Amino acid sequence: MREPNYVEGDATDPIGDGPRIIAHVCNDIGAWGKGIVRAISRRWPEPEREFRRWHGEPTFRLGAVQLVPVAPHLWVANMVGQHGITTRRGLRTDAGYAVDAGPPVRYEAIRECLGTLATHARTERASVHMPRIGCGLAGGTWAEVEPLIRETLCAQDVPTVVYDLNT
């Protein structure tokens, strides 16, 4: 089993050679515009355009993954791993607002996404690059997410790089 590699840097500028997948967590209400997606959209228009097109289709759900090619041997993985978004009014979902509903992160959905991603990465012989997914706007904790990465990507021997942004 591989260990995740931790580096300082920008996950949207993945290190190394060969096929690479940039993974990030999305919400299930089709909102796009905060967190790492801003950096993704500055580099490539395709992931946002495809995410917005995908939202509303039957395959769009918690736990689903959309791989979007952005360059030869480079993909962005839109992983639906959070239910709603957090706003000043509370948790916003398709059904409205729920104050004090807890963070939007859904660990089981992230686990499912990472399992699917491991299959894609092995098929393409790709490494996976990500920020500390699910721990920013989604409100999750790394103590919960890191084991999911180890149980899925690392257990499948997929090279995995976790980026901490230089600040």
From TrEMBL:
Check the record and name the InterPro entries matching this protein.
Answer: ADP-ribose_metab_enzymes (IPR050892), Macro_dom (IPR002589), Macro_dom-like (IPR043472)
SMART domains noted in UniProt? A1pp (SM00506)
Name the GO terms of the biological process aspect: peptidyl-glutamate ADP-deribosylation
**Which reaction(s) are listed as its catalytic activity?**
an N-(ADP-alpha-D-ribosyl)-thymidine in DNA + H2O = a thymidine in DNA + ADP-D-ribose
Q: Where is the Macro domain?
A: 1-167
PANTHER family, alphabetically?
ADP-RIBOSE GLYCOHYDROLASE OARD1, PROTEIN C6ORF130
This chain's protein is named O-acetyl-ADP-ribose deacetylase (Regulator of RNase III)
Source species: Catenuloplanes niger
